[in-house]
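ingest -> validate -> predict -> emit
validate: passed (alphabet ok, no gaps, 291 aa)
predict: started
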Amino acid sequence: MSFSTLKEVLEYSEAKKVPFWEAIILDDMRERGVTRGESFETMRGMYQAMRMADEDYEADLRSASGMVGGDGAKLEAFSQKENRLVGDFLTSVMEKAVKMGESNACMKRIVAAPTAGSCGVIPAVLLSYAEKREVSEEKMVEALFVAAGIGEVIATSASISGAEGGCQAEIGSASAMAAGAVTYLEGGDNEAIVHAAALALKNMLGLTCDPVGGLVEVPCIKRNVSGAVNAVISSQMAMAGIRSAIVPDEVIDSMRRIGKLLPSCLRETSQEGLAITPSAQQVTKKLAQKS
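emit:
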């Protein structure tokens, strides 16, 4: 990718007089040597795979560890209750985030966005948005290009790997990507898009990667819910005109530095944090007995 900072994307977009998403598709065409149509159809395939993964959720499935499965169905049932504190949209976001994460843990087909561990964030936000606003598939694909551009910058300037930068690099990155994408869908300009991403990422800085038993299940799946809801509220702040006091690219750079400061025991090794609690140790012991 030609862009290593969000500022470069904005400058290119302004120079070419194209929206954020189009700056990304033009870069993809140049980088991969593909036509505009080929690039767009590749991204459309990603969107359709997300939709299919959501539709194919199976409430009765359980992961091999037994820790995961069925919670998505609980949220679906909860959505029918009238005494909920949150509205239909956020309830849908929560439900879809859990369902996608559970499908991943149960070895079903998902889209790593940007990773398998954070696969629920972007689909939860965008699929819920498409249902609420009845947006065309073309527009949703454009939003995915926005998300992809933000993700590529983060991957280039920092990291999207939990093993390298902690969960902030996975759920945090996904949340920033989703925030920028939904801001675009809401009619936000390029400035609003990058500030929504920054606001979302700031809320995730320092998030550790401490999976129980080394599996992408606990606490990963519920963190997808937090990342997805965080993306929505960050986008709404940006749409209200709120801007990050810290320059968006500086937020990304901060995530890179923080990731390097995190000890290895908090970067996907399951040697600290939630992974060594008594509850987690019981799960780990049971897993060892099964193997």
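The mean pLDDT is 97.
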